[in-house]
Amino acid sequence: MNKITTDILIIGAGPVGLFTVFEAGLLGLKCHIIDALEKPGGQCSEIYPKKPIYDIPGMPEVLAGSLIDSLLEQIKPFSPGYTLGERAEKLIRNDDGSFEVITNKGLIHNSKVIAISAGLGSFEPRKPPINNIDNFEGKGVEYMIKDLDFYKDKKVIISGGGDSALDWTIVLSKIAKKVTLIHRRTKFRGAFDSVEKVQDLKNKSLIDVITPSEVLKLNGSNKLQSVSIKLNGLDKLIETDYFIPLFGLIPKLGGLVDWGLEINTNSIVVNNALDYQTNIPGIFAVGDINTYPGKLKLILCGFHEATLMCQAAFKIIFPNKKNILKYTTVSGVQGFDGSTRKTDNSIIKSIE
After folding, report:
1. What pLDDT, on the 0 to 100 scale, is given for residue 344?
2. 80-93, pLDDT tens digit by residue?
C-alpha cells in the first residue's frame, strides 16, 4: 500500500493551510496537504472565487480566487505535496509517536505533526424548505457561484438576507439580464456598505428587491422556468433562469470526529495560550476549524495561528535543534531545491 511521509501533514488546502506551508518552509519543514476538493483553495476557490476580500494586510481589495493564486505562488519554493479529492478519515498513533492518516481511498500519510486547517470542515449548503428543490439542482438551482459568465444575460433570483446574498446581488447586477433579491424579512443582516449598495441599485431600478417574501415552489419541466412566491398575501409567479438560495453552509467534521479530539459545536478546541495544539499532542488546529476564548473566524487570524503553530511543530520534529528566528528580509526564502528569493460586526438595516 502506498505511503507518503512528510514533516507536517496539513488537512485542508484553504488559505490558512496554504500559508502554513510557507511558515513551515521558512523553518525547513516539508509539508503535504490533504483536501477533499479537487483543487487547492477551499471555499475561496470553490464557493466565492470572485468575491472581494478587504481585510488582508497590504491588499486594499483582493478577489478570493486571486488570493489563492498568490498563496500558491508564495509556497512554490517549498514544493508541497498534494492529495486532492480525498478525505482524511482514519488516524493511527505509531509507537514512535508519529501519526498515520488514511484517506477514504486508502492512501496512507505518515508525519510527526498534523495541522488541521479544514475551515468549516466538509460542508453542504443549507437548503430552503422547498419540496421540489432537489428536482431542479443543476437545472436552474445553484448553491454556489463559481463562474460569473454562467449568468451573463440571464434572469437570476437570489434568496437570503446575509452578506453572501447581498454581495452576490451586487456582483451579478453587472452581469445578469435581471437580478431579483428575495428575503423573508424587511431587514437585512450584513455589512452596512453592502446594504447601502443594494439599496442604491434598487433605487436606480437596476435590481428588484422583494421583502418580506420567500420562494415557496419551483416551476418548470426539464429545467427551472419560474418560482412561486407569496407577497402581501397573494401568490405571484416570477420567471427566471436561475434560483440561488444563499442560506449558509452546514459544517461537518467528517472522519475527524472519531479521532478523539475535544470538539465544541463543530469546532476543535485548542490551547491558544501556547501554540494552538489540540488535546492530542502533535495535532494542531488553525483557522476557522478551531475554537478558543476570543476566537475570531478571519483569514488573517488564521495566518497568525499558523505562524505560531509551525514554531511549535519545529520543536516536536527536531527536539534537539534550536530554532533561531530569522526575518525573510534578511535570510531570504529558501526552497528545497536550494533556490532563494527575497521576499466586523453585522449591521441590521432595512431596504425600503
Report:
1. 38
2. 999 998 889 999 99
178, 262 Cβ separation under 8 angstroms: no
The dihedral through the CA atoms of 3, 84, 88, 67 has a sign that is: positive
Residues 6 or more apart whose Cβ sits within 8 Å of residue 268:
116, 253, 256, 261, 262, 278, 285, 289, 290, 291
Rounded Cα–Cα distance for residues 261 and 156 (Å) = 43
Contact 291, 266 (CB under 8 A): no
Residue whose C-alpha cell reads 452546514 in the numeric block:
250
**CA dist list (Å): 319 to 8, 64, 110, 306, 322:** 15, 37, 18, 19, 8
- For 137-189, write each residue's pLDDT tens digit: 989 999 878 788 899 999 999 999 988 899 899 999 999 999 999 999 999 98
State which residues of the chain have pLDDT below 50: 335-350
Please tell me the distance from the alpha carbon of residue 3 to that of residue 128, in angstroms, as a whole number: 43
Sketch out the chain's domains with CATH numbers: 3-123+249-319 (3.50.50.60), 127-245 (3.50.50.60)
Query: Smallest Cα–Cα separation from 299: which of 289, 311, 310, 308?
Result: 289
- Distance of alpha carbon 110 from alpha carbon 6, whole angstroms: 6
- Residue pointed to by grid coordinates 418560482: 227
